[in-house]
Amino acid sequence: MSSFNPRNKIATRTRLTEVRYEIRGELARRARELEGQGRSLIKLNIGNPGAFGFRAPEHLQQAIAGRIARTDPYTHQQGLPEAREAIAAFHKARGTPNASPERVFVGNGVSELIDISLRALLNPGEEVLVPSPDYPLWSAATILNDGRPVYYKCDRDNGFLPDPEQIESLVSSRTRAIVLINPNNPTGANYPREILERIVAIAQRYRLLLLVDEIYDHILYDGNTFQPVAPLAGDLPCLSFGGLSKVHRACGWRVGWAVLSGDPLASGDFHHAMDLLGALRLCANVPGQFAIEQALHGADTITPLCEPGGRLYETRKALIEACEASPHLSLVAPAGALYGFPQVVGDAARGFDDHEFALQMLEEEDVLIVPGTSFNVPYRNHFRVTLLPEAPVLREVFARIDRVLSRRADAPSRSAVA
Ligand SMILES: Cc1ncc(COP(=O)(O)O)c(C=O)c1O
């Protein structure tokens, strides 16, 4: 028997109990166990293009391969100078005010920069306005940097768009920033200019920093167009995030960037804080940074995937058709990004619990999906799938989903049983 004294157990940071990242959590662990037992699963939990047979564009691969001898040293903490030039030029061309290489921060993915930016900004107890549903790293990083996420609703009845009036009603003396995720993960909503202008006006009124996660900026369907926030923000400090993971299908290279715009006098200390935190981790991975110039100024490889005949377009079409054909599902068709976020409706929704459903899909149907509550929503009747598999795979997944939901709909209700 072990002589281990439980009092000697290593205690961990208390606030970690408030943090979740279920996209890679308990269900994903169970999926690995099942795979270990020889089960073949369809895993739709992560927006990871490389895991679905996509490759990063050839000219990006070549850009790294041709410069591999230059990737050994650390580079500047804010990123490789030529990569920052390319990012600043890309932002200038789309109207970002005062974008310059000195105001670009390259990180190990947008993920690292989300954490660094909130660490640079927040004092204990300060609040960040975060969308609900959110991409859960925004909540987690706020909490782990001693802040408090305050959620503004993006209601499905409103096409999952933010409501500026509600956002304003949540501003308090402790509010420091507004997070916008556009195009949105998990809902696929693409925010119109008019709503963004109203949110910028709120940030202006209360001197809040705009933190704008635009990692899906060029993944749009059906003629939807993308409106970047920074050009609307003018002199107001705004940090815009982008990267190679999604638009350029290179998640594993871990390349993201954040561009600070607006009046440098208003954001000088914040700039220094970001620079210092960047310096403490020395620099981001260097090899992938050599692909940035080609990614932003070379051939466009994402638009053809989003147009009729393109792989993402066809899978999204399969998703929309499957939800339309199902009596149990209702979908706000995604305008952009890589996900569908259907709602379970009708008899199947009686006593529905998204986590229990996701576990059932895994155990009985070999499909891994993400429960809606993973995205910090108070309701339990949604789930998320990624649009990355081929259309026939998604059709098969929805046939299985329908099978399970039909069984649930046909089961006697709990009250009838009682
Ligand atoms: C909205 C959003 N922001 C940031 C990230 C993280 O991206 P990266 O791979 O650049 O860290 C993701 C990844 O799924 C995302 O969906």
TrEMBL record:
InterPro entries: Ala_Aminotransferase, Aminotransferase_I/II_large, PyrdxlP-dep_Trfase, PyrdxlP-dep_Trfase_major, PyrdxlP-dep_Trfase_small. GO terms for molecular function: L-alanine:2-oxoglutarate aminotransferase activity; pyridoxal phosphate binding. Coiled coil: none annotated. Its cofactor is pyridoxal 5'-phosphate. It comes from the Bacteria. Keywords: Aminotransferase, Pyridoxal phosphate, Transferase. Its EC number is 2.6.1.2. Residues 41-391 form the Aminotransferase class I/classII large domain. The keyword Mitochondrion does not apply. It is an enzyme of class 2 (transferase). The keyword Transferase applies. It holds the Pfam family Aminotran_1_2. Belongs to the class-I pyridoxal-phosphate-dependent aminotransferase family. This is alanine transaminase. The lineage of its organism: Bacteria, Pseudomonadati, Pseudomonadota, Gammaproteobacteria, Lysobacterales.
